[in-house]
Amino acid sequence: MAKTKALYPERPVLMIDDELPWLRSMTMSLKSVAGITNIHQCQDSRKALNLLTQDSYSLVLLDLTMPHTSGEELLRRIRETYPQTPVIIISGMNQIETAIRCVKEGAEDFYVKTDERERIINGIQKVLKQNRLEQEIRQLSDSLLQGKRQQHPAFASIVTRSSKMHSIFNYLQAVANSVEPILIGGESGTGKELITKSLHQLCHPDKPLIAVNVAGLDDMMFSDTLFGHIRGAFTGAEQTRLGMIEKAANGILFLDEIGDLSMASQVKLLRLLQEGEYYPLGSDQPRLSKARILVATNQKLAQKEAEGSFRRDLLYRLHAHRVELPPLRERKEDLPLLLEHFLQEAATILGKPVPTYPAELITLLATYHFPGNIRELRAMVHDAVSVHGKGVLSMQRFKEAIGQELPEHGPSVVTPVGQQVKVRFSDTLPTLKEVSRLLIEEAMQRAQGNQSIAARMLGITHQALNQRLKKMED
User: Fold this and answer.
1) Overall fold of domain 13-138
2) Has this prediction a pTM greater than 0.85?
3) Which of 168, 194, 270, 286 ranks highest by number of CB atoms within 10 Å?
4) In Å, what is the CA distance from 377 to each residue of 108, 309, 402, 425?
5) What averages of pLDDT result for each successive group of 10 residues across the chain (474 residues)?
C-alpha cells in the first residue's frame, strides 16, 4: 500500500476569495512553484471565521472586495481573535491608501492580483518561514519553562548523565520539526555523528540519512556530489547522475566539516538554504530540495568569517538552530559511564569477559584533558582490553597513553585545552617554597589524594612527592 505524501505546510493555508477561477489558478501556482499542497479554499466570506475556529492555519490569503463580509472587516476580526495567524492581502484593486490601512491593521503584506505571480509566491513563502520560526521559538520557550522533557528514545545511544548534554537533547526535541538547518559544533571526537543519527531518528526515522564529508571537495566535486548532473554536462558524463540532495529527499542530508567548504561552494549552499532549490550540473531548470539539512564543524565559523574565509550571510543562515557539544573535559561526570560502556564494547568485540578496573583509574582519567575527547577515551579502553589477561585491568596502558601527551617542562603552563600561556604573577613574587606548596596541594586535590597520580601530574617520582608532603607537615 502506497504511503500518503506529507502535506506542506503542516498547518494549512486558507484562501478567502469569492472568485473561483482565481482560487483554482492560485492553488495550482502554489503547488507547482512552491510545493505548497496543504490549501483550504473559502468562497463565502461569511464562513471564514467559522473555518478559523475549526482549524489552525499557518497563513490566510485574503481578498478585499467580496460580497457579504468585506476583506477589511475580516482582517480586523482575524487580528483580534487569531493574532498569531498571519494575513496577506491579495486584492484585485491597486489602492495605495487601502494597502497602507491594511498593513496598519496588521496585514503582513499587500499584493495586487496583477502582480507577477512569482513575486506573490515569494512573499507567501517568506511569511510561512517566518511564522514557522516564531512557532518554534514559542515551543522552545514553553519547553524550557516547563523544565526538562522526558528524554526521547532517539538519544538512547548517547551515554551521558551530563546536564549540558540533556539540555542539548531538550533543545533538539523542540526544533526537530523545523525546516531550518541545524548547525552542530564541537571539537573532534565529541559525538557530532551520534547527534546526527539521533536527529534522524527523531525527525525522519523512515526516510534516508545521507552523509557527505565536504572537506577536500573542490567546487566541481561539491556541485556534482550534492546536485548531480545530467547526461552530457561535461566530458565523461555519459549518464544522468542523481545528487545526494535528491537521494536524501524527505529525509536528512548531513554535511560534515562544513568549515572547510570553498567560497564558491558556499554561495551554492547559501542558495540551497535560502531558496530551497538547486541546479544539477548542465541543467538550467531548478529543482526543489526536499531534504532537511544538518551541518557539522569542529571549527569556529565566526572566527573564519572574521578572517574572510567564510561568508557572513551563510554563517547567519546556519545560525537558525545550532548546538555546541561540550568537550569531554567539561562532562567528566560521564567518565564512569563511558568507561564501563567501552569496556563492555571492547570485551564483546574481542570475545573476552568484561574486566573490572581499579577505582584509581577514574581519578587518573579525570586529571587528563582529552584533546581527542570521547573518541580518544574509546581508543584507550580498547587498547587496554586488547592486552588484558586476567585479574583487575592494569592502568599501565592508560598511563602510557596519557604520558605521550604530556608537554615538555618549560617556562610556561598548559591550559585544559593544551594551549601554552605565560604564567602571570603579582608585583610581589611568591617564594619557591610557596609555589611548591601550592602546586602540591593543587595536584593532590585533583588526584583526590592519590599520591601516585599527583606525582605523575607534577613530573616527579612517588617517593619525591612523599618526601615533600612530609616536609610540609613539619
Assistant:
1) Rossmann fold (3.40.50)
2) no
3) 168
4) 53, 33, 10, 35
5) 61 93 93 89 92 90 90 91 90 84 90 90 89 71 55 89 91 86 94 95 91 92 93 87 91 94 93 88 88 94 92 89 94 94 95 92 90 95 94 91 54 42 64 79 77 76 77 74
